[in-house]
Design brief:
Distance between the termini: 64 Å
Bound molecules: fe (ii) ion
Number of helices: 13
Strand content: 15-25%
Number of domains: 1
Number of strands: 18
Radius of gyration: 22 Å
Shape: globular
CATH architecture: 4-Layer Sandwich
CATH superfamily: Clavaminate synthase-like
Structural class: alpha+beta
Largest sheet: 8 strands, mixed
CATH class: Alpha Beta
Length: about 425
């Protein structure tokens, strides 16, 4: 190529041309991911399959679904390039860890509840007889601590509008407003979790045989929904903390969700391996992709962020293993082969130990317009949903994610079992 030709090419603002092309064409989508479709704004297609219980909740909450549901942000607002998407939440602000100074005995929360049921020894608690919308700040702080300790907390039979759900999320951190996924109309920050809609709107290919193949190798097999073990929003500068999924349409049987504890996954490791991992960092990627401004024709790339592999939780002070199969890409400071081997082992520690997991059976509420809430700490857990209902019964939910602190590792912090005085016996290792 002659110098003249090179100069001419460089003179064309390729990124702007590509952006204009994408934004002006009906056939081109902005943003790339497992839940992508080409609709922007309210989607009429969703109304065809909207469950009655969801419709009732939305209408009673004053959500306008006359033009369609759910809604994606307007195409002009969805970022095209990586640098724009990365910069969305790069600003500095003070994050308040609500659980940090809460009453460790949680008297205000437990005292008002009718019943407190632990699902397993260390993971999962259900609270009976309380409405989330009625909690006062003291109870919300105690709930934040309970979630941090127990990983996930459940509330059945809740009357909860999407707006109130967002308000709760903004109390526990800054609620994430996703730049491109489906949301409740007019309430950015309340994401819609609705696999039935992904199948209907853009033909997500989901079958009994393929729905969890990503659990083998998420880099080789398509991740087709929430069946694969994962953590939400790990690529953020401040990744997700408290996350609240409210299901307002639930199959009579099936669609359970499982959670696994990151405190316990860390404690499953030998003390010498823990020491090796302490202080290591890893690269975490986004679920959605964006174009590289300098090389837009190379296709979508995911946002990458570096965080500590072992983190310390600001409220409990416990160390936890921060990895997940779909979005932890590589460990820094070791070779790529070593990184793959170590990460695969760490993923399996999370996924294969039933004694560090809880499986929750969602049940439809007998009261119309009511739903069930799961509130978990995405820092200290992974989750996976079962698709055994195979879409034959509706499952629809709204999710609000509170972004937490900039991740850190405190070498002085303890593990959960160390702090609770539980056995770390290693006799079977040798
Ligand atoms: Fe998720």
């Amino acid at each position: 190529m002659s110098n003249t030709a090179t100069l001419k090419l460089e003179a064309i603002p390729v990124d702007k041309e590509v952006e204009n092309l994408i934004r002006s064409s009906d056939k081109l989508s902005v943003g790339f991911g497992q839940t992508e479709n080409v609709n922007y704004g309210p989607d009429p297609i969703g109304l065809d399959i909207l469950p009655e219980s969801t419709r009732q909740r939305l209408v009673e909450s004053g959500i306008d679904i006359s033009k369609g549901y759910p809604s994606r942000p307007d195409k002009s607002l969805v970022p095209v390039f990586l640098d724009e998407a990365t910069a969305i939440r790069d600003d500095d602000y003070e994050y308040i860890e609500r659980g940090k100074n809460a009453d460790p005995e949680k008297k205000a929360l437990f005292g008002a509840a009718k019943e407190v049921i632990n699902l397993t020894k260390h993971v999962g608690t259900e609270i009976v007889g309380l409405q989330l919308e009625d909690l006062n700040d003291k109870q919300k702080d105690e709930l934040a601590l309970l979630v941090a300790e127990r990983v996930v907390v459940f509330f059945r039979d809740q009357k909860l509008s999407p707006q109130k759900q967002l308000e709760l999320g903004d109390y526990w951190g800054r609620a994430e407003r996703h730049p491109q996924t489906s949301q409740v109309n007019g309430v950015p920050g309340v994401s819609v979790i609705w696999v039935d809609y992904y199948r209907k709107s853009y033909g997500l290919n989901l079958t009994f045989k393929n729905n969890a193949l990503g659990n083998w190798d998420a880099t080789k097999h398509t991740v087709r929904g929430p069946q694969v073990w994962h953590t939400d929003l790990v690529h953020e500068k401040r990744p997700s903390g408290i996350t609240h999924l409210h299901l307002d349409a639930i199959p009579n049987v099936g669609g359970d969700t499982s959670w696994a504890s990151g405190y316990a996954a860390y404690d499953k490791l030998s003390e010498s391996f823990k020491k090796f991992l302490d202080g290591k960092k890893a690269v975490y990627v986004s679920a959605h992709g964006y174009l590289d401004r300098k090389n837009p024709f190379s296709g979508p790339k995911r946002i990458e962020r570096v965080h500590p592999l072992v983190r310390t939780h600001p409220a409990t002070g416990w160390k936890f293993l921060y990895v997940n199969r779909t979005m932890t890409k590589r460990i820094l400071g070791v070779s790529s082969v070593e990184s793959d081997l170590i990460l695969n082992y760490l993923f399996e520690v999370y996924e294969k130990n039933a004694d560090i997991q809880a499986r929750f059976k969602w049940t439809p509420s007998s009261k119309p317009g009511y739903g069930t809430s799961a509130i978990w700490d995405n820092r200290v857990s992974q989750h996976s949903a079962a698709w055994d209902h195979e879409g034959n019964e509706s499952r629809h939910g709204t999710r609000v994610t509170s972004l937490a602190e900039i991740p850190y590792f405190d070498p002085e912090s303890k593990s959960q079992r160390e702090d609770l005085g539980l056995s770390l016996d290693e006799r079977d290792f040798f």
